[in-house]
Amino acid sequence: MTHGMRPDTHDSTYPEGDRTWRDSATRYALLPLRVFLGVTFIYAGLDKLTDSAFMKDAGAGSIGDMMRAARNSSAIPALVDLALNNPVGFGYAIAFGELAVGIGTLLGLLARLAALGGALISLSLWLTVSWASDPYYYGNDLAYLMAWLPLVLAGAAVLSVDAALRARRRRASVYS
Fold it and tell me: I need a labelling partner for 78 at 20 to 30 A (CA). Which of 20, 61, 87, 173 fits?
């Protein structure tokens, strides 16, 4: 008995110009996720930076009051305490981090690193701000964390600066 793949169920030997719609769908499968997360994180960063109430130690809608309210219900209160040493600085760090992650993800520039940054921001927000959501699926930070993971693993294979740089390096190595 031979062990092999049935030729009618799998064929990865398509010439470059003869791809099926499934091959194209597979190549572009993560693009909608990349666009959604990139735009969302850019928007979130800009929203924080342009909200005059957010970047304050105290007051309605401030980062300081939000962190103090989340402190006792967070999974890691010490993490919130650390941020409370300088809530405005922490707010700016989160906002600029979200901008960097969003731009990197949208452009596909250092896409895996950008996705890792997005995953870490989402993880920290889940463990602090949305940890007390009950049931857990009401908190959106866990869903964002899970959405980042495929991009951490796969990067940005198409329509990205990373893909263009890879193609350029391949062409350069062929002519070397």
Answer: 61
